[in-house]
Design brief:
single chain; 149 residues; alpha+beta; Thiol Ester Dehydrase, Chain A; 4-stranded antiparallel sheet; 17% helix; 39% strand
């Protein structure tokens, strides 16, 4: 697949600023929601618990370009895909995203960006954060279904 495409959703009034335009921080929330949707649809977990440790995918880098304003009521989709396939011993995932809406019968690219997440564990008592080691095999298998340019 080229991109995983989220279910369409409408921009809510609470997601806009005083000018009626989507606040920039909302774009990143939508990208993160699309990631969660992707994991769920493939039977994977963004957060799990094992031996008293919580494992997940904290972000270590994010960037975005905002190309066109989105407004209350716009119908939006988020497209995500890995920017590259992870190396064999990597703990990092590099994602790309695009936020699009339909206007005048055509798809409008409103934002694009990327983020990097690492597979890590945290001890909920001590707060100690550590690498989990290699990315899980079941996730690697799903990631290999993407066409990476």
């Amino acid at each position: 697949m080229e991109f995983y495409v989220s279910e369409p959703f409408g921009v809510r009034f609470s997601e806009t600023d005083m000018a009626g335009v989507v606040h920039f921080s909302q774009i990143l929330r939508w990208a993160e929601n699309a990631e969660g949707e992707f994991f769920r649809k493939h039977g994977l977990f963004l957060v799990s618990e094992e031996a008293g440790m919580l494992s997940g995918w904290p972000r270590v880098r994010v960037e975005a370009s905002f190309l066109a304003p989105l407004r209350y009521g716009d119908c939006v989709r988020v497209k995500i895909r890995p920017r590259s396939l992870p190396e064999e011993d990597s703990v990092a995932l590099h994602w790309m995203f695009e936020v699009v809406c339909m206007r005048d019968g055509r798809e409008l690219l409103a934002a694009r960006g990327s983020w990097t997440s690492v597979y890590a564990s945290i001890n909920p008592v001590s707060g100690e954060l550590r690498s989990r080691g290699e990315i899980p095999a079941d996730l690697k298998k799903v990631l290999k279904t993407f066409k990476i340019a």
